[in-house]
Amino acid sequence: MRILFQQALNYYKLKSNNVKHKFYGVSQSINVVDGIKENLEIRGANLLIITGGAGTKVGKNAQNILEKVRRTPVLIIRPPAFAFEKLYLTIVSDFRQKLNTIDLDNFCKVLENTNFEVKILVLEIQNEITIQATNNLEALIIYLKPFLKQVLTIEYTKLSYDFKDYIASHLDGIICVVDEKPDLFRKIGLSKSNLISKLENSYSNPVLVVHQ
What's the superkingdom here (predicted)? Predict the structure, then answer.
């Protein structure tokens, strides 16, 4: 088992030509969430990548990680995963709260010097969006401009089936969703984030979770 593990690690090291990317093999007898938290702190990682369950369901391990690991953005890759010549990132939010650009910054730095395009899907009808939400949207647009080589695309929808249709027609892109800051009830385990229902609408897309 140790030999196979080392072979896999060597394979990924050889496949990566980017000196900024590092791969570490970690084997510990420890709770998975505690192990992830500990190694994120030690390595100073700015992105956590985990696998999701097949189909639309989110596995229990993934749910547990999403609920308890908030130090970095989390990228969920579901089988089957495909590589595309161009990367599309769709940020989905109602913009009632200002987005945490620290998490987005970490992800955008990973994609620096790559050919990627950002789209924004606003979960609100355009002529009904509040002034606060408009200000939060404009703040995100200003933040994103230095990273972009192309015009930013913005779409609006409030209906859940329109959101599902949008996702189904953009299977070649990463969907970015926001996990809101936990309230008291969530912290003590009496409630959970509505993030899981959002993820289960995303079909087989890779999903980037940023934290509020």
Answer: Bacteria
* Predicted confidence (pLDDT) per residue in 37-92, tens digit: 888 888 888 888 887 766 666 777 888 888 888 888 888 887 655 556 677 888 88
The domains of the chain are located at: 2-211
Q: What is the DSSP string of 78-111?
A: -SSP---SSEEEEEEE--SS---HHHHHHHHHHT
What is the DSSP code (8-state) at residue 113? T
57-to-78, 176, 180, 191, 202 alpha-carbon distances in Å: 10, 17, 20, 19, 10
Q: Which residues contact 182 (CB under 8 A, 6 or more apart)?
A: 193
Give the integer Cα–Cα distance in Å for 6 and 24.
10
Q: Measure Cα distances from 157 to 31, 174, 207 in Å.
A: 40, 18, 19
Distances in Å between the Cα of 39 and the Cα atoms of 47, 103, 147 are: 12, 18, 29
Single out the residue of 154, 62, 68, 147 nearest to residue 110, CA to CA. 147
The phi and psi torsions of 208 (rounded to 5 degrees) equal: -100, 120
Residues 49-61: tens digit of each pLDDT: 887 766 666 777 8
Residues 6+ apart with CB under 8 A from 16: 23
- 2-211: what CATH class? alpha beta
CB neighbours (10 Å) of residue 195? 19
